[in-house]
Input
Amino acid sequence: MELKPDFAEAYHNRGNIYQEKGDFDNAINDYNIVIKLQPDYADAYYNRGSAHAKKVDFNNAINDLTKAVELKPDFAEAYHNRGIAYQEKGDFDNAINDYNAAIRLNPDDANIYYTRGNAYEEKGDLDNAINDYYNAAIKLNPDDAEAYHNRGLTYAHKSDFDSAINDFTKAIQLNPDYADAYYNRGLVSFNKSDFDNAINDYNTAMQLKPNEAVYNNRGIAYAHKGDFDSGINDLTKAIKLQPDFAEAYHNRGNAYQEKGDFDNAINDYNIAIKLQPDLVPAYYNRSNVYKCKGDFDNAIRDYTKVIELRPDDAIAHCNRGEGWLHLKEWTKARVDLDTAKALGADIVASFHNEYENVEDFEQKIGIQLPADIAALLTLP
Output
């Protein structure tokens, strides 16, 4: 450097080496010198933009990549990388516009279609995401296991479970050690209520990449099969791996509840709620346990919390209304039942899920309902 301090290319190359080492600050310093020496050097702006992006400085990355395409309008890689920066910022429309430009310049690059597919998926445009994964990325690179895997995820989001399973299976055929493909195929099988195949896939995923998520989901699958002990065992392992895993405590609480172990269920729901105070299903399920124990005060307290979090939750109003009946709080029961009905709940059907009719309720509970409430809960 001392022999030729204005040698821009040398600074640029050293910047590239720094960037490859992950030393982005020194890389940026070298690119700064290059740009000062040679302000129209498009590649220097491109590489400095890439370094900024790796530092999660997306605004400066976009500025540099914009300069790169101004200087070099056919710079497909710069459009592609600027699209990625926009996508990281959540600006999907600008990201897709840049991917479109990159594809026009380089229509045979499967990776650009792949990233555009990701942007469409994050934007919620699942059909265009599938088109990119299939019509482009997979067509251009039919051995790309990750493209099949991601298209499978998109099909799963569309609830097209059979297509999702086909894609995950293809990804596994291409890469038999693809743990995430086994895991996600297991999730889809679970959603199809195919618990045996779900567990088989979780078993393989566990061998390849053991983690708390696999234990959690395998535990849920075991519980849905009625094997509550195996489910609780897996969920306990998930909790040991991640002690703040609120969802795992909630799921273990559900397994305890199904076993009839209400005290352990409540303990787990308590922890789940402490870890995640807005976890609505935990309040719902804890209230069910309290109802089974005949503790309607606490059941009502949980329904009240659900209503605070979701004021338009018709089922919570309905259930709290039924809870007030047990406490002879007729006015409060009327308000909740009327609200639930106005919100669209079939309060008569809900009541008849537990009691054959009003007379059955009055006989079992030892309470006579006011005539207007009895009429409200009677089949027409």
In short: Residues 126-140 form the longest helix (15 residues). The mean pLDDT is 94. The chain is about 80% helix and 0% strand. The CA atoms of residues 15 and 30 lie 5 Å apart.
